[in-house]
Amino acid sequence: MIKKSFSFSSATVNYLFNADFSYLETLVSKDSAVIVTDENVFRKHQKKFKGWKTISIPSGEQYKVQSTVDTIIQQLIDLGADRKTTLIGVGGGVITDITGYVAGVFMRGIKCGFVPTSILAMVDAAIGGKNGIDVGLYKNMVGLIRQPEFLLYDFSLLKSLPKEEWVNGFAEVIKHACIKDAPMFKLLEENKLSYFQKDFTVLAKLIQRNALLKTKVVVEDEFENADRKLLNFGHTIGHAVENLYTIPHGHAVSIGMGAACKFSEQITGFKESARVINVLKQYGLPPQLDFDKDETFRILKSDKKKSNQGINYVLLNKVGKATVVPLPFEQIQSLINKL
Ligand SMILES: NC(=O)c1ccc[n+]([C@@H]2O[C@H](COP(=O)([O-])OP(=O)(O)OC[C@H]3O[C@@H](n4cnc5c(N)ncnc54)[C@H](O)[C@@H]3O)[C@@H](O)[C@H]2O)c1
Ligand SMILES: [Zn+2]
Asked: Taking the CB of the first residue and of the last residue of the chain, which one, N or C, has fewer CB atoms within 10 A?
């Protein structure tokens, strides 16, 4: 097991890589904890939950909403949870987001920790303290920034992860490589998904590298004034097409990264679009989509992160180096129309 601690403004988070799920008992006693998980994870790993008070919710983004929060809170009351209870989210990003949020509001805030079980949660969602729920079509509209006490990484949990969720998670891995880590980009270029799926030692290293990359960015810019914005690479158009079509998040981000590469060619003189596009395809991700340009632009304009004049767009200077460029709406529209 590899232990690392990181200090955020309000709390220190302990990261436990290569840990076994059973190590949870060393962190929190079964009497003073309640696990929140989803039906898939619970079903696949039932034995691990033995002896733990567990709340299991249906799986899927459509359950990351207030009514599920109400259900969880009611069950916490029924289970006799109090201010000293630690809530443990065991699952993908939906679970870590909603568990972090419930922990932030239940009795004005109780402790929480995460055991991320999807690639996406391990490299992205569980890290950084952002949590929350969706409201109607608006993703993550309500929430808090609040750090968990610990993140426990048991990589063997990934054995049950469906293939499409591996692909989804790798979209964020490729994103990290594009914005901050050229050597990791090369590693991805030289291999295929199956290489990481087969060899859990290599996979563990890759996930740890990504978790630490995101952590470093967040520690240095917890409240998103500067570098943390870079993590939005591919997510501007990504969120818009995700909103417009029923496609997985990883696919949407991939389409967004493909578009951002093309924008970068025009704005920063970026010359490596082909490399990025090839890596996306290599990992089963679509670098483009024939999306409705007018509708996409309309959604972009109503994005919650926009200013009145335009969008701070994340572009690439080269693989491994990103930059934020304020682009006026007219320019974005013309860039979209050229795609
Ligand atoms: N807070 C943040 O900073 C942040 C960052 C990125 C994404 N997110 C959020 O994360 C969510 C997406 O995360 P996700 O892709 O993990 O979604 P998810 O939690 O819905 O998990 C994806 C699917 O995989 C299943 N699953 C997860 N782990 C499994 C395992 N080990 N074995 C079998 N099945 C498993 C789940 O049941 C689900 O069906 C979104 O709601 C997004 O908004 C948050
Ligand atoms: Zn994402």
From this structure: N
